[in-house]
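tokens incoming
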């Protein structure tokens, strides 16, 4: 890769209203925000990235202010020899900020978005797709699953996602034993051969409850049970649950740092590892984790539930990994998914089809969502 010198940074916040809130065990999303970052060099080459801002979604503007006032100016007019070196330098330089502000997550999310944008810029400039920059054996399509299936109307929502082309489905649980089991059984009863079904408890339970629920669902064809415990519970609790459960466990979306992922991978309880590239690590950090996952013989399944740029970045990572993981695609209505990633990839028989265009291969249609933009900043 040749050197990168950024002389312009833009940050845009969008907010889309929704008729039906997206519900998780920890709370509901009453609208859908997205924070995008755009970086540009002196020759006009540019790239797009996305910054995680799902919860609380009122924090979207706050993350944009971090880019505008601190992180963007730190990046401006500096030369780096690669996105990796930029990511490592900015991570080191902002460490004291994480302590002083008490916001390590917010800063990690901002750096993740910047990193994705730098990779996109380099790919566009060099004429190579992101996945091919990471691996010459990258796939051109990845299997996807319909995510965000709510506890109310779950069977109908799964049916709509099947009609839209999905062949794999993930249900939100953590709303009480009877309701969770009824929803699981309802979806399972409609599965056809070859379809897969997952459940996500969103950190809702303690160990006894998780063991009880895992036992209750042991006879159902469930590919994984995701985040049944709070992500920061000690490894001994996860190991206890794994030993008692009759279902494979998944997690990793709420971790930060290579050491945290190394502990997860080496602990033995997690079968499906789910870093979120917009929440921590961007392309640089997550690709390092992907290699760690592969070396351990585990399955990489990127977590993602927001806008189109982050979704396609996750798909490019999964395609580069060339394993047997699944791409998470939110099935709830959200114009900030399709309109912010044009041309939006097609879904064909459950597979998310990636184009051969350089970088991410997509761009936001800013005119289509101009009425949803609520904040803008330019740093030059």
């Amino acid at each position: 890769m040749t050197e990168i010198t950024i002389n312009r940074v833009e940050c845009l916040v969008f907010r889309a209203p929704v008729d039906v809130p997206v519900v998780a065990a920890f709370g509901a999303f009453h609208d859908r925000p997205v924070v995008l970052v755009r970086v540009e060099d002196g020759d006009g080459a540019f790239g797009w990235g996305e910054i995680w801002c799902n919860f609380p979604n009122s924090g979207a503007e706050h993350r944009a202010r971090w880019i505008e006032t601190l992180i963007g100016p730190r990046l401006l007019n500096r030369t780096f020899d690669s996105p990796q070196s930029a990511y490592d330098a900015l991570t080191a330089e902002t460490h004291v900020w994480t302590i002083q502000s008490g916001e390590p997550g917010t800063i990690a999310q901002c750096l993740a978005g910047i990193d994705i944008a730098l990779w996109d810029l380099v790919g566009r400039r060099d004429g190579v797709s992101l996945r091919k920059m990471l691996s010459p054996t990258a796939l051109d399509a990845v299997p996807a699953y319909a995510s965000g299936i709510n506890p109310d109307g779950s069977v109908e929502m799964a049916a709509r996602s099947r009609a839209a082309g999905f062949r794999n489905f993930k249900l939100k649980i953590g709303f009480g034993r009877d309701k969770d089991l009824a929803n699981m059984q309802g979806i399972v009863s409609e599965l056809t051969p070859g379809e897969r079904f997952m459940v996500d408890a969103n950190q809702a339970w303690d160990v006894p409850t998780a063991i009880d629920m895992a036992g209750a669902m042991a006879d159902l064809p469930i590919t994984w049970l995701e985040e049944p415990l709070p992500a920061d519970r000690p490894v001994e609790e996860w190991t206890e649950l794994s030993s008692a459960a009759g279902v494979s466990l998944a997690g990793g979306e709420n971790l930060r740092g290579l050491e945290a992922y190394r502990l997860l991978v080496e602990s033995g309880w997690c079968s499906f590892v789910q870093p979120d590239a917009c929440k921590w690590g961007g392309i640089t950090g997550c690709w390092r984790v992907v290699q760690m996952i592969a070396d351990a013989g585990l399955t990489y399944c990127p977590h993602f539930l927001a806008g189109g740029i982050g979704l396609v970045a996750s798909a490019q990572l999964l395609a580069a990994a060339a394993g047997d993981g699944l791409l998470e695609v939110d099935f709830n209505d959200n114009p900030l998914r399709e309109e912010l990633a044009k041309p939006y990839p097609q879904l064909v028989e459950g597979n998310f089809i990636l184009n051969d265009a350089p970088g991410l291969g997509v761009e936001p249609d800013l005119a289509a969502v101009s009425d949803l933009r609520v904040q803008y900043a330019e740093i030059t």
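note: Residues 4-128+367-379 form a domain with the Enolase-like; domain 1 fold (CATH 3.30.390.10).
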